């Protein structure tokens, strides 16, 4: 069942260590089949070098495990909340990639300091608040998703396909699992560059809005002209 | 004698250069057989690419070399003290891994700024004080252990399986040699992230206690649910 | 047509990921045949591991695509402006290499702090200003070139073969495509070292002019004596 | 002539890119045969991947090229001065390794913040002053050596086998070419760690003298006990 999706989610998971975003098992990728209402996610705590496509776990949008013998990622409830609330996203990634996690630990949104950021993210990448004790006790992973959704009130998740969870780390998403991983790689790169930028100029301001508009739109707007015609 | 333990200690040593924690011969791993009261440790100053399982040295808990033609690690007396004082640990690692060593050189305990830390270490990782001139003269390596033990008064070494020795570098431990290396890798990663975190937010505070409890307990508590059932 | 130039521009493009200057497709290299008045440039948004020499696009100096089925790099109009204004340059590179881009995001010229810099760049590497809204609307990529040219009034582009575009990233150039890539590698290295230098000494001053003269001239002056006779 | 020395100097040169100390041709290693009064050095500006043992150039201690068809390193006169003044050194290395060069650019001596440093260098690693205009004009490379020698008045070059040349980069030396490269690797590692240390604790003080004595002496003193008996 969903063999093609499992394979693409497996491949997207394997891209994380190749891109240097992962230490040990600290991350997970999922992808969704919107028509069937099912998503596929990495099993919990399995080493990347032992992972196989058939290990992927199939979940429905009520949180039931539909297929797979292994436990799904411990963050599955977060993925579920995001798929339910953000209806255009097709894949989700969570990592503890070091530079993005450092911003999350610092409790800071990632400002847009340049075109590398604006080519992918339209405006700053927000930092979601800590969960309350009650939210942790009631359902830590589910409420991690709830707080992300709260953070995106008034924001288009397809315009800003990433969030930093305070004292935790980043989640990214995208049109599918591979695209969500792509955004995780970009996030890590700009998180690194933006720290260096602030060290070089503590008074630095975000890039001019005109420049942010131009770069986001030339790649993602209705008249996008970056890349090849499809 | 102890062929299986020698092989696992050899493998754990070889993991150090693979994980980028080691320059030249700056590190050593040991593992203990608690029933026999013997531990196995890397020989001193041997290049990792020439190291063989049979080079591992066997020591008893009185500090006698029981087997092996090479000198044991110059830090053997430190390992011995820790095995005697911390009766649940099964393996010990010492490295000069650059980020953890930088915290040790700065003389600072490593605060818990996020879940990456809390998944492995319950609370801050302490920095042990310098040895006095007398302690150095009397037995430098033995007293390095003594000062670590002093530092852990009131702390459970299995809850905080690492220490930073001031102006020196880290020791980590774990259930066995491989697990101690795992903790050394995690320590290096959080030491890097926590420096970046402070550069991004000099006024940063530790992660909320509720979050530290949640993450440590979901992996190590009686109701742990991370990973696969064993 | 221009098979040799296409091959050398292809090779120069492929050197970018090998040297760690590129994430995904974030960069482009071109090279020019001054006699024919044609330049060859990477196509837009094509993965480096799928790129082939025959994919290179041939442009004339009026901005017409003379050969090639793929769209040229979205930055082609910038390359065009530079080839027209700087008549001694034979190759151009644009990247988002992280350290140089951090200086660009900080809006700062790169000072000459040492001989590594002075061996390649004579004096500081300037940071070009932001484009105005009007310049963006009128022709973003063309005017990126115009602003670089404005920045080099009074400067010899062969003495300072690089620029940082504010909130964007670096362009470098050179005698040909390979030499322009060489300069991009050097720029990234000195951008890294100069940040570290400032962290170590916030009051640091540029290297003495006498030293800058000596190093630039022993490699590039009329009596250069570095390397082998040619 | 001197085939064995040429081979060892060649091997030592090739170790520089393997250890990540070198970009392009920015470095050189030499080794001396004290009995014959001849030293062997890398040719100038030759790519490491084209270098062959037979390319090594043989020089005498009056600065005459005794063998080899290629020009010797442009820094040969510096090596010559050091071999003449420091009669126990058997090999010399110059690099622009990024972290050590950053300290040199900052014009700062490298303090001893820990045992990694004290295991190899006894006390701080000095930063040699800039050359005067006259010294540059009279003989830049020779006087680079003269100023290093001036810097070591009262210091034993075998106790501190490294120097930082202001606004330039490091030289290291050792018992032979391989040992000099070993010291260059260590220097780069402690240069990195010491910057991080200062970022973590701007008020950090050098390691206690008792600890520096202990670590230098257990490896290099008359009663050294690190490593295996020889």
From TrEMBL, chains A, B, C, D:
GO terms for cellular component: cytosol. It holds the Pfam family Aldolase_II. Residues 7-195 form the Class II aldolase/adducin N-terminal domain. Its cofactor is Zn(2+). Keywords: Arabinose catabolism, Carbohydrate metabolism, Isomerase, Metal-binding, Zinc. The keyword Isomerase applies. One of its GO terms (molecular function) is aldehyde-lyase activity. CDD domains: Aldolase_II (cd00398). SMART domains: Aldolase_II. GO terms for biological process: arabinose catabolic process. It catalyses: L-ribulose 5-phosphate = D-xylulose 5-phosphate. Its EC number is 5.1.3.4. The keyword Phosphoprotein does not apply. Pathway: Carbohydrate degradation; L-arabinose degradation via L-ribulose; D-xylulose 5-phosphate from L-arabinose (bacterial route): step 3/3. Belongs to the aldolase class II family. AraD/FucA subfamily. PANTHER family: FUCULOSE PHOSPHATE ALDOLASE, L-RIBULOSE-5-PHOSPHATE 4-EPIMERASE SGBE. Involved in the degradation of L-arabinose. Catalyzes the interconversion of L-ribulose 5-phosphate (LRu5P) and D-xylulose 5-phosphate (D-Xu5P) via a retroaldol/aldol mechanism (carbon-carbon bond cleavage analogous to a class II aldolase reaction). This is L-ribulose-5-phosphate 4-epimerase. The lineage of its organism: Bacteria, Bacillati, Bacillota, Clostridia, Lachnospirales. The gene is araD_2.
